[in-house]
Specification:
About 25% of the residues lie in helices and about 20% in strands. It has two domains: about 35 residues; about 40 residues, no CATH class. The chain is of the alpha+beta class and about 80 residues long.
Amino acid sequence: MSYEPQLPPTTIDPNIAQYIYDELRRIADAYNSGQFDMIQLSVLGQEVPKPREGNIVHYAAGVVNPQEGLYNFEGGQWKKL
């Protein structure tokens, strides 16, 4: 997945348009680099309705297993990492 910013509307002040575009370009560069210092997952209290192969989630205790933690959806089931 990648992100490419669109040009801002030409109906706004050119300085503001350039600022917006520059900021979106910086965000895109960081996102597209694929390098992140960390990710933060919300703790889910209910199972994902339509999990897909390779999903990784942080489940609360008792949702798919007695233990809270990170789970990977693999082979049609959730596996604790």
